[in-house]
Design a protein that fits this description.
This protein has helices at about 5-30, 45-60, 90-105, 130-155, 170-175, 185-200, and strands spanning about 120, 125. The chain is flat. Helices cover about 55% and strands about 5% of the residues. It has two domains: about 5-160, Up-down Bundle (Four Helix Bundle (Hemerythrin (Met), subunit A)); about 160-200, no CATH class. Strand 1 and strand 2 (about 125) form a beta hairpin. It has a two-stranded antiparallel ribbon with strand order 1-2.
Length: about 200
């Protein structure tokens, strides 16, 4: 792969993962501790379950990323959807943190030569780009669920993490007075900053 393309792709992937992580954590910050464990119905997953599943996936996929199958033999996926009665928010957050450490610990050291390698997920060969994209889509899907649940539970007390309703024109004006960036994490920070200022002024 061309060096500049590989570098730009990796930097964008890293900033996207950081932005998604921040989105989830800012949603979780708004929840009362007990709301982390509530499901909408018997078949639904709680925020805690989603976070536990994501972390289990991360630990499996990104540990020894370049040298072993991403589906580790010691992973117990079904148990990721079970929350023990004595589980606390601190337990969930610690496991979540461990998962993200695996993500960035695998991605940040990647070299240009690594982009020529193939890795396995459940025995299926993936290019590095395919493997990263696969996990990006998976995490975005579940983080959307986390935000939906958090917004539902907080209802009128929810602090927006996106452009507020009927504020698109104002947001575009806000961007015109701030430094432009292609960095996903910084873009997210700008949206949250705008939403906070909009709520303060309303």
């Amino acid at each position: 792969m061309n060096e500049a393309i590989a570098r730009d792709y990796l930097n964008d992937a890293l900033s996207s993962f950081r932005a998604y992580r921040k989105l989830a954590e800012k949603a979780v910050e708004q929840l009362k501790d007990q709301e982390l464990f509530i499901t909408l119905d018997e078949e639904g997953n709680s925020v805690a379950v989603i976070m536990k599943h994501m972390a289990g996936n991360m630990i499996s996929r990104w540990t020894d990323f370049l040298t072993s199958d991403g589906e580790k033999p010691d992973r117990h996926r079904d148990m990721e959807f079970v929350i023990e009665p004595d589980t606390t928010k601190q337990d969930v957050m610690a496991y979540w943190q461990r998962g993200w450490e695996c993500v960035f610990g695998a991605l940040e050291p990647l070299t240009l030569e690594d982009f020529d390698k193939k890795i396995l997920i459940r025995g299926e060969a993936h290019s590095i780009v395919q493997a990263i994209n696969r996990q990006m889509a998976h995490y975005a899907y579940h983080i959307g669920q986390i935000v939906f649940l958090a917004k539902h539970f907080r209802s009128s007390e929810w602090n927006s993490l996106s452009i507020p309703k009927n504020k698109s024109a104002e947001f575009n004006s806000f961007l015109s007075t701030s430094s432009r960036t292609a960095d996903r994490e910084k873009q997210f920070d700008a949206v949250v900053d705008f939403a906070r200022k909009s709520e303060t002024n309303s």
